[in-house]
Description:
- With 230 residues, this protein is mostly helical.
- The chain has two domains: 26-125, Rna Polymerase Sigma Factor, Chain: A (Orthogonal Bundle); 134-218, Orthogonal Bundle (Arc Repressor Mutant, subunit A).
- Helices cover 70% and strands 0% of the residues.
- The protein has ten helices and no strands.
- It has helices at 4-17, 26-36, 40-65, 73-93, 104-125, 137-150, 155-167, 171-182, 187-193, 198-218.
- The longest helix is centred in the N-terminal third of the chain and has 26 residues, at 40-65.
- The protein is elongated.
Amino acid sequence: MPSKSRSGPSRTRVLEDAPMPSPHDGESELWLRRLRAHGPQRDEALTELHALLLRAARFEVGRRHAGSAHLRGGDQDDLAQQSADDALVAILGKLDSFRGDSRFTTWAYKFALYEAAAKVRRQAWQGREIPLGEESWPLIVDDRRRTAEQGAESAELFAVLRSAIENELAPHQRQVLIAIALNDVPIDVLAERLNTTRGAIYKTVHDSRQKLRAVLAANGLSIEGHRSSS
């Protein structure tokens, strides 16, 4: 009578050694194999991928051109080329992070859109001074206050906010909040000017807003400008 002890472990080992099925579709898997290859196969894949990224970048730059009068025809193509180049480098550095939640080309396309959008924003602010000084923010708040009053926001809310920004925020927090929240400076532009990262800017803005919310709550106010019902 055959022993069960031999067939059981043997079957288990076969299952353990079997390759896991790939979550990627066939086309995406082919892209990954070609980009990880060597020689002509990889070179061909890189050329095809760059062409796809360039089409995406040109689309995004062109889409944003209507609201970017500073962009001339030559500038648009140059930005698209730079965006495609940077997107390609980013994709090659993150191939292992591709999980197959979408097609590889869709995943790659987003890199080009992001790079193009960021470069258009930087171009728009090139040569422009970013207001970071403490003396400028009360005027900015006043401008926003007039707009907010038309929407029935409370004047008391802005008085408390104004005091909190002056007295509760650290100088760097105040500068970043003025630029991002009040002057609509793009985060990537500000990060570049301050020689820091997008993540650091996000954290500064988050911490600043947390402080302001706490001050408003202590005064019985909410960020929407309504007195709390506590």
